[in-house]
Each structure stands twice: as C-alpha cells, then as structure tokens.
Amino acid sequence: MLDYDKEAERYDASRGGEPRAEAAARAVLSLVRPDARSLLDIACGTGIVTRRFAAAREGMRVTGADLAPAMARYAAARLPGAVVLADCRRLPFRDGEFDAVSSVWLLHLAGGDANVRAIVGECSRVLRPGGVYVTTVDKGASHNVGSDIDAVLASRPPSTAHDAAGLVEEHARAHGLVPAGQARFTGHGQGRSPRRTVADLRRGWFVTLPPGDPRAEHFATRLAALPDQDRPRPDPVFTLRAFAKP
C-alpha cells in the first residue's frame, strides 16, 4: 500500500492532473440529481475532483473527507472550511445529512471485504432518503487496456478486487441501496509506458509484487525490453456505479 501522505505532493501530477479530474467530476455529477443541495466526497485526496463539484453546482454544499493528513491539507487549501480528517468507515456526520455521497478511486484500496462493507454502510447511513451514492468500481480491471504491457503483466500474482461491481452492489443492497445507473470516464494521462510501469513496480504500486521481491525484478526486466519505453499506452476508462436510497 502506498503512503498517501508521502504521495500527496506529487499525486495530481502523476495521475492525470486537471483533465482527469474534470472527466471524473463530470461523470460523477451526471449521476447526481440536479436538485441535490449537499454532497460528501469521501477519500477526497487533494481535492482536485472535489472542488469541481462545488464549482459546477451553484448552491450545493460540498464537503470533503480524507484519512491522510497531507492529502486533507491540500484539499483544504482548495476548499477552505469544507474538508475534514476522517476515517470513511466511521464518518463524523449525522444520519441522513447529505443528498449525495461520492467515493472516487477508494474501494479498491479498502484493504478487505469487511472494510468495503463498512464504507458502503457509512455512505448509506449519511445519505438522506432519495439520495445517491456514486463510486468507482473495477479499478484494477480498468487499467488492462490490451497493451503489450498488460501482456507482460498478465502472469503476475492476482490481487483480490474488493471493488468488483458485483460485490459493491451486494454490499449496497445489504445496506438498503438500490442500483441507480452508471457512467464511464477516461483516465486522461494515466496510460502507462514501460519505463513508468517499471518505476511503479519498484515503488510498490503493484501490491502483490512488493519492492525487492525477485518476481518484481523479473517483470521489470521484461518490461524494460519492450519497444517505445516512454510512449504511453492507451488511457484506462473507469466505471462509476450509482446506488439510490429509497
């Protein structure tokens, strides 16, 4: 698992910056009712997406929450007075406080099925009746774009996809939420190049291949032999699912 306090300074630049943030925000808001007056963005990170929610919907109160102090500081600079430091498994908000809750690129990092259940349960709890929870699903699969890099990495040890769409829907239904639509958006600037993938391997990006593991170096050697070392392969396309609270 990456240390997101250490990642905070370079997070935006290394993950597509404003173009990706714009695409993500637009897609999330396409699933949020136009009359929503409050939105909670959990695991808001640096706030690069969160601030776009506030800018796009005049009159909608937007709140961000993140567990990593450095991430929350960046977000607070973008949304003064609207960001809290919080564990999304135990949100510090009242029942039914928000018209919408979003979690972009979170559930795949939850660390286990029990944590995903807890997060989805908290999102349901703080939603008012008629509200909607929007989240990314299947993030790992989104990065498989059929490239030569994917072919090299195909035999790496698999990791459990705790954000698989079917599992997330199961948890949502268990907490009284029902499917309410989906959307997709491009992860601009996230297309991998072989050289960047090697660097990511060596800093622990792939959780089943920890830095220093001989298997990681085996994959790094194969990736280094690919052509066009600095040419990004196609960008991933991410999937959002929406769940409504009747």
Overview of the molecule:
There is one protein chain. This protein has 246 residues and is α/β, with parallel strands linked by helices. The chain has a single domain, classed as Rossmann fold. It contains ten helices and seven strands. A seven-stranded mixed sheet has the order 3-2-1-4-5-7-6. Strand 2, helix 4 and strand 3 form a beta-alpha-beta unit. Helix 1 crosses helix 4, helix 5 crosses helix 8 and helix 9 packs antiparallel against helix 10. The two termini are 36 Å apart. The mean pLDDT is 93.
For the sheet with most strands, the description reads: 7 strands, mixed
* Radius of gyration from the alpha-carbon trace, in angstroms: 18 Å
Spans of at least 5 consecutive residues whose pLDDT stays below 50 are none
CATH-level-4 superfamily name:
Vaccinia Virus protein VP39
